[in-house]
């Protein structure tokens, strides 16, 4: 797959101008959402697919009932990918709260050998994986210094993550790794019949064409562990096949929700440093750096639209977005009779995580109950898609399908990282780079018989595209200051 020329340089010359999609199909819609459908979509089933989550089918209803009747005295053995990150540490909080229900068999993380050592000492996993050989050696040294005799098998690198995901004794894998690094270990875990508590949305966004058939083939449960998709999943419990009409994803609005489009663009033009600081701080949630920035661009919500399509089977015309600044209503579903069912709770990631690892049971947790009187009011508004062009790009990629969502995801990951690394990339350059990659990929787009190799190839190409074009953007931006 060839790297395109710098044809995007004209589009990217001024990083603080308003974003206008070059694809005419992206310009024909109004500036607010519902994105591609009128309020209350038809829900006809056109362009719907088989869901990867256990919903919307007679088999899933029966499976849910059978599991529920087993009672809450269950014990699950889990592997946690990303154990030192936000999802991983909060999953371990749940293990601490419910020690009779969960046993930790494997942990994988980045390079934080010190925290991994503490986790190994406390939870005694069979396998511990870190990113690099140096971090793995450091972990061994710490555990030896602490006098640990029952050492886990210590591994590293991508192969180590796969080993943690496929440890024989675990029945559920919590995928808390950020980005496409979670794709291969998730696939290998599915092949072994392990349930997936899915916190890594990129797994379905990039790999949906491969993942969904594997889920069906191996009969595993794909259980969402992020707040919005967990909310939808919870709302769908007991909804009969054919009962779902529409999915409504709620969004906090991110760091710039209180600014108008013009105010945001002016801030990008006049104070790029302040934009960078604000874009990497979330007003409601305690999340990782990458996801926090995705929330600021609203790409996080666009990616969630694609994930909802693969998880629950709804067509893109039947998935809508609404901004809800309080982050109390985590998402909603509309049924065929136009009833709306919502899931509410505090902005606490432990709530969706605990349901993903305990479904369909309801464990008693030591958390603060929701008090609506304390909340006071709940507000909603439609997002401005001129202010948040990443939403439109995600819908466009999702409707195109095939390898386009892998390119969208990889281009976003690369642009997100470049912005956070402070190489001179502007906030408004992020969607421009993503759109450029999508346009360039049309030459090699594939939507039939998509394989894992296709997805990984497109992922690598899109990252290279963004890296090369970022150099051009930064050079052009610097020249404007001379």
Estimate the strand proportion.
Answer: 5-15%
* Uncertain stretches of 5 or more adjacent residues: 2-40, 478-482
In round numbers, the mean pLDDT is 88
Can you give the helix content as a percent range?
A: 40-55%
Succession of helices and strands: HHEHEHEHEHEHEHEHEHHHHEEEHHHHHH
Q: So what's the overall shape?
A: globular
Q: Give the beta-strand count.
A: 11
In short:
With 482 residues, the chain is α/β, with parallel strands linked by helices. Helix content is 46%, strand content 12%. The chain has helices spanning 9-12, 58-68, 86-97, 113-123, 133-145, 157-165, 183-191, 202-218, 227-235, 261-270, 272-279, 289-297, 299-312, 350-358, 372-375, 389-400, 404-420, 429-441, 452-480; strands spanning 76-81, 102-108, 127-130, 153-156, 172-175, 195-198, 222-224, 244-251, 319-323, 329-335, 340-344.
Describe this structure in words.
This protein is an alpha/beta fold and 482 residues long. 46% of the residues lie in helices and 12% in strands. It contains 19 helices and eleven strands. The strands form two sheets. It has a seven-stranded parallel β-sheet with strand order 4-3-2-1-5-6-7, sandwiched between helices. Strands 9-8-10-11 form a four-stranded mixed β-sheet, covered by helices on one side. β1, α3 and β2 form a beta-alpha-beta unit. α6 runs parallel beside α7, α8 runs antiparallel to α17 and α18 packs across α19. The N terminus and C terminus are likely disordered.
């Amino acid at each position: 797959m060839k790297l395109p020329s710098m044809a995007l340089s004209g589009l990217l010359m001024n990083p603080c101008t308003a974003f206008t999609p070059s694809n005419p199909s992206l310009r024909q819609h109004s500036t607010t959402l519902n994105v591609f459908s009128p309020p209350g979509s038809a829900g006809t089933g056109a362009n719907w697919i088989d869901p990867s989550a256990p919903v919307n089918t007679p088999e899933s209803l029966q499976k849910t009932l059978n599991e529920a009747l087993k009672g809450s005295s269950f014990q699950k053995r889990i592997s946690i990918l990303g154990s030192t990150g936000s999802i991983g540490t909060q999953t371990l909080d749940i293990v601490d709260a419910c020690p009779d229900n969960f046993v930790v068999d494997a942990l994988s993380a980045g390079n934080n050998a010190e925290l991994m050592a503490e986790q190994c000492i406390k939870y005694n996993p069979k396998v511990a994986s870190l990113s690099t050989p140096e971090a793995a050696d450091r972990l061994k040294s710490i555990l030896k210094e602490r006098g640990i005799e029952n050492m886990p098998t210590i591994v590293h690198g991508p192969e180590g993550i796969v080993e943690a995901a496929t440890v024989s004794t675990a029945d559920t894998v919590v995928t808390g790794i950020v980005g496409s690094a979670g794709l291969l270990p998730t696939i290998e875990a599915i092949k072994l019949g392990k349930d997936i508590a899915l916190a890594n949305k990129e797994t379905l966004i990039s790999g949906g064409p491969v993942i969904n058939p594997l889920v069906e083939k191996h009969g595993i449960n794909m259980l969402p562990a992020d707040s919005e998709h967990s909310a939808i999943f919870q709302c769908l419990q007991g909804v009969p096949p054919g009962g779902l009409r529409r999915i409504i994803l709620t969004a906090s609005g991110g760091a710039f929700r209180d600014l108008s489009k013009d105010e945001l663009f002016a801030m990008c033009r006049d104070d790029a440093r302040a934009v960078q600081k604000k874009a990497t701080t979330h007003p409601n949630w305690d999340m990782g750096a990458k996801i926090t920035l995705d929330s600021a661009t609203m790409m996080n919500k666009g990616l969630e639209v694609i994930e909802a399509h693969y998880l629950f089977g709804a067509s893109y015309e039947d998935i809508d977005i609404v901004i809800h600044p309080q982050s109390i209503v985590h998402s909603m579903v509309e049924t065929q009779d136009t009833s709306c069912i919502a899931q509410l709770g505090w902005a606490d990631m432990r709530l969706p995580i605990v349901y993903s690892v305990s479904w369909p049971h309801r464990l008693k947790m030591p958390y603060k109950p929701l008090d609506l009187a304390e909340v006071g009011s709940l507000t909603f508004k439609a997002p401005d898609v001129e202010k948040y062009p990443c939403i439109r790009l995600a819908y466009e990629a999702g409707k195109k399908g095939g390898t386009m969502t892998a390119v969208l995801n990889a281009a976003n990951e690369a642009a997100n990282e470049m912005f956070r690394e402070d190489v001179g990339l502007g906030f408004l350059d992020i969607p421009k780079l993503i759109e450029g990659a999508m346009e360039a990929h049309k030459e090699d787009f594939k939507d039939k018989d998509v394989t894992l190799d296709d997805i990984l190839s497109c992922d690598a190409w899109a990252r290279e595209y963004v890296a090369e074009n970022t150099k051009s953007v930064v050079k052009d931006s610097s020249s404007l200051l001379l």
